[in-house]
Specification:
Elements (H helix, E strand, L loop, with lengths): L7 E2 L1 H6 L3 H23 L4 H22 L9 E2 L26 E3 L2 E2 L13 E3 L5 E2 L12 E3 L1
Parallel strand pairs: 1-2
Antiparallel strand pairs: 3-4, 5-6, 5-7
Helix pairs in contact: 2-3
């Protein structure tokens, strides 16, 4: 029996359910978190200040969202990324940029090869020019949108 499909939360509906002051609370926390994260990622100084902003913003987001959107966290729901125009596997949630650990490809819109009922052994392994991993795909792109070439 297949694993149950994880519940999704619609982030647009969740955002619209918040009062303006609640949206502002989460929006400010998100901006602080992102500015701190960016500063840490690119090595800006003072490093401790950017680390503090990243941490404080993240904590404010986690605890603020848990308080304001309790249904989203118990049990945890995976966010529906379609609001960002991102296609995900309806079973595991992988995308073109964040694929399954052993690699995957789209067998149909919204279903990756790792979650499909069975893999087709007729497809030869192919090597990805970008990451070097092998994929049992029909000559499409790996889940990092890398170019696939015959191995």
């Amino acid at each position: 029996m297949a694993d149950p499909v994880p519940a999704l939360i619609d982030p647009v509906a969740a955002w619209r359910s918040l009062a303006p002051e609640q949206q502002q609370q989460l929006g400010v926390a998100a901006i602080i978190h992102l500015l701190g994260l960016h500063g840490v990622n690119v090595g800006l100084e003072p490093r401790a200040g950017f680390q503090a902003a990243e941490f404080a913003g993240r904590e404010a987001l986690i605890y603020g969202a848990a308080e304001l959107l309790p249904g989203a966290f118990d049990p945890p729901h995976r966010p529906d990324l379609s609001a960002l125009g991102i296609v995900t596997c309806r079973v595991c949630g992988c995308t073109d940029h964040v694929g399954c650990g052993d690699g995957c490809w789209w067998v149909e819109p919204g279903l990756c090869s790792a979650c499909a009922p069975s893999r087709d052994p007729a497809h030869p392994l192919r090597a990805c020019d970008h990451c070097g991993k092998t994929y049992a795909g029909p000559g499409v792109y790996c889940s990092r949108t890398c170019a696939i070439t015959d191995a």
